[in-house]
Amino acid sequence: xxxxxxxxxxxxxxxxxxxxxxxxxxxxxxxxxxxxxxxxxxxxxxxxxxxxxxxxxxxxxxxxxxxxxxxxxxxxxxxxxxxxxxxxxxxxxxxxxxxxxxxxxxxxxxxxxxxxxxxxxxxxxxxxxxxxxxxxxxxxxxxxxxxxxxxxxxxxxxxxxxxxxxxxxxxxxxxxxxxxxxxxxxxxxxxxxxxxxxxxxxxxxxxxxxxxxxxxxxxxxxxxxxxxxxx
Length: 231
Known about the structure:
231 residues; two-stranded parallel ribbon
């Protein structure tokens, strides 16, 4: 049996590039969205179905004084860069520690479907710190044994960071400009991908409550799934 959309959703990372796109999709449906935020976010849409909850990712049980309402699904779009985080330790605290904390709380609350944004090249044995942390995060979430876990591994993201009040990332801009004329010569897995495309793939990927227990989608597969009308 297929559910067209989750009826209730926990969303971590709603102020980010992919998370905001997920939020917009969710609010176009009848879904009740519980956004888990590190700070107040007045820039988010005003909707009676959006419930914002400030949390402390480093605190036990995220510092919640009362439990979050039960939900059908969890989507985690947390992520930063080492440059923005300021150090490898700060990067790991968010991209591994915070992701695992949210997922653990959701699993313990009975959430059955989870989707998480990882990255192209994620590998727990990688010699590249960024890729290794992403791979270790994937391992940790897999070990939580959600009935359904979808791991998205997008390549370089393309999106409107100015809309979110975020500074442009020079690396993303240059990579997009350089790759645009050669787009069809670049293997689909490595091409830049729109944040909106990743968000749609996450949303569609959670629509089937009888899907496989673990699903890892590389960037080209995210593009294919997002282009479909159903999963």
